[in-house]
Design goal:
By secondary structure, the chain is of the alpha+beta class. The chain has one domain: Alpha-Beta Complex (Nucleoside Triphosphate Pyrophosphohydrolase), CATH 3.90.79. 21% of the residues lie in helices and 45% in strands. A four-stranded mixed sheet has the order 5-1-7-6, covered by helices on one side. Strands 2, 3, 4 and 8 form a four-stranded antiparallel sheet that branches. A hairpin with a 2-residue loop joins strand 2 and strand 3. The longest helix is centred in the middle third of the chain and has 13 residues. The model has no long low-confidence stretch (mean pLDDT 95).
């Protein structure tokens, strides 16, 4: 890998619950995370996020404000296996009901209590802690 990859994530909260997907591919296959993925060359960041959420959850969303930026570096011994810069945005559902699609094993709404029993990615764990501390997930 010569350069970091830009990724986007969508934080969708409704009625005190957050929407997460179970990853179907590496890295972190089988772990729960906020929906999102890679930005394609020449693609606008917000368009990439809309596309990724549609591909993973079948939801159409409006992209709102940037929530946070995370950096994820995964090494295999000393060699960098993955290096992502992830831009996480707030999103609002426009239409659709969440259903897993080709890029997700499952999609589900989680309350604070339900989050205690699942395995998430490290970046998702940080986001969830912040949102729970602010009382946005209950």
């Amino acid at each position: 890998m010569k350069y970091p990859i830009v990724g986007v994530g969508g934080i969708l909260i409704e009625n005190g619950r957050i929407l997460l997907i179970k990853r179907a591919a590496e890295p972190n296959k089988g772990l729960w995370t906020i929906p999102g993925g890679k930005v394609k060359l020449g693609e606008n960041i917000k368009d990439a996020l809309k596309r990724e959420i549609l591909e993973e959850t079948k939801l159409e969303v409006e992209v709102l404000d940037l929530e946070d930026i995370y950096e994820l570096i995964i090494k295999d011994d000393e060699k960098v296996k993955y290096h992502y810069i992830i831009l996480d945005y707030r999103v609002k559902r426009i239409s659709g009901e969440p259903m897993p699609s080709t890029d997700a094993l499952d999609v589900k709404w989680f309350s604070k209590k339900e989050l205690e029993n699942i395995e998430t990615t490290e970046t998702t764990k940080k986001i969830l802690e912040k949102l729970i501390d602010r009382g946005e997930i209950f």
